[in-house]
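Here is the promised in-class demo. Please do not try to memorize the tokens; focus on the logic of going from shape to residues.
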């Protein structure tokens, strides 16, 4: 069954309606597989699973009983499942968690048990988007996985520690696939243009169009090939004469309905737009900030890079003027990692709106910069004796921790004693503003400094 899928893709005529370009270009061996070098080393579980499938190794082999492939779209999860099945005498059954129910799962398992008992032939069960299975559906898989009635290969774009039942996860090998690098995608596109299974050299690709295609793909091989096919089809329809049509950046943008955004992820535009985003947030212009965020999203910028910049901005430019800003930014970074794109753009937009409209203070940033400057200048003598560690043998003889006042025993929970080194007594690093919540911090700080320092 799996062999038929590969044969169909390999034999499909160019630009025919039989198979789209991503299917025609699907690797037929691990040697053609692009990316995921960390999973394909010699002796790795994945390589052994593919090799043993080809050799027909049986139940006594060293192959893991089940595998969960976790990674973003277009990184090769489905392809790996087909490679495991290809060339094997095992039965290959594919279910989509979007359409399959418990009855479908149980029917596959029952057929697998009968086949195993009657002929000793094993079944590979591939479940795409397994995170969409309910708990009951996932539970239905457990006996077959535990008893090796089937070799389960499950694919998910969601974090399996949240989306897959713990018992099923504990019985499986978890393999994490990473987004393809730009070099991976570039090589894949170039091969698809010339390969007989792909476009067979019927079009050529302008260098700028190639760069834009790589950028817009955002590490998704399927997306890259789908856009390439759309552009190539349009170019062939508009071909004038027998000359090989050149697919330009403009033609590609029209074909995929995607503007070739002026943004170079590895050049000046990358830093210029990122800088403009942060400065717009700092300047409290939420509309400008939203524009630059959109520009980065449309250009295929790594959402994790954007999220990291927002976390920094929340601390550097907002600080205690709105203490919840950092919580929002950190939550956004975690949520984007968990959800992925394109929905991640909504989370980033919420964080940008919060940060841009929040009151601003760089007091914490200034405070640590001043403190670091003093340390680098050699200021700061020994830690006062009463603050030193007194929990080891001999500490008392050194005078450590002697005379220390436990703050919780003092009125208001604040004890009057010296905390900084002698040469930094009375130095103020943190100077809160009167913006937002930091106004209350400033008032409290004035009282705290008087109590701690014994000032009137």
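The designed amino acids, position by position:
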């Amino acid at each position: 069954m799996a062999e038929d899928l590969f044969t169909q893709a390999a034999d499909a005529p160019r630009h025919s309606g039989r198979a789209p370009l991503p299917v025609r270009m699907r690797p037929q061996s691990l040697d053609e597989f692009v990316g995921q070098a960390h999973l394909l080393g010699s002796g790795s579980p994945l390589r052994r699973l593919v090799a043993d499938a080809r050799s027909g190794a049986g139940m006594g082999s060293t192959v893991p009983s089940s595998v969960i492939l976790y990674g973003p779209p277009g990184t090769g999860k489905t392809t790996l499942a087909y490679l495991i099945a290809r060339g094997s005498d095992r039965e290959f059954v594919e279910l989509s968690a979007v359409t399959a129910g418990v009855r479908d799962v149980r029917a596959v398992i029952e057929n697998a048990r009968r086949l195993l008992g009657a002929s000793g032939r094993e079944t590979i069960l591939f479940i795409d988007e397994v995170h969409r299975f309910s708990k009951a559906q996932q539970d239905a898989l457990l006996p077959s996985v535990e008893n090796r009635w089937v070799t389960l290969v499950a694919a998910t774009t969601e974090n399996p520690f949240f989306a897959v039942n713990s018992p099923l996860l504990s019985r499986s090998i978890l393999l994490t696939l990473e987004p393809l690098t730009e070099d991976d995608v570039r090589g894949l596109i170039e091969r698809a243009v010339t390969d007989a299974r792909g476009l067979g050299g019927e079009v050529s690709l302008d260098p700028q169009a190639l760069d834009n295609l790589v950028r817009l793909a955002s590490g998704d091989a399927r997306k890259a090939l789908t856009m390439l096919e759309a552009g190539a089809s349009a170019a062939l329809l508009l071909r004038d004469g027998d000359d090989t049509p050149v697919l330009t950046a403009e033609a590609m943008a029209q074909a995929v309905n995607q503007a070739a955004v002026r943004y170079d992820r590895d050049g000046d535009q990358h830093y210029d737009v990122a800088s403009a985003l942060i400065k717009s947030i700092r300047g409290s212009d939420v509309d400008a900030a939203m524009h630059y965020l959109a520009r980065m999203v449309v250009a295929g910028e790594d959402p994790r890079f954007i999220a990291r910049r927002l976390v920094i901005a929340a601390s550097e430019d907002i600080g205690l003027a709105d203490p919840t800003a950092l919580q929002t930014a950190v939550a956004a970074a975690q949520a984007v990692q968990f959800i992925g794109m394109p929905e991640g753009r909504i989370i980033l937009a919420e964080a940008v709106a919060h940060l841009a409209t929040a009151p601003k203070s760089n007091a914490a940033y200034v405070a640590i910069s001043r403190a670091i400057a003093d340390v680098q200048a050699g200021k700061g003598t020994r830690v006062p004796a009463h603050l030193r560690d007194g929990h080891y043998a001999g500490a008392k003889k050194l005078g450590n921790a002697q005379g220390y006042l436990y703050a919780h025993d003092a009125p208001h929970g604040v004890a009057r004693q010296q905390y900084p080194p002698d040469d930094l007594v009375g130095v103020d690093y943190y100077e809160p503003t009167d913006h937002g919540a930091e106004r209350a911090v400033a008032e409290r700080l004035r009282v705290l400094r008087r109590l701690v320092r014994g000032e009137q």
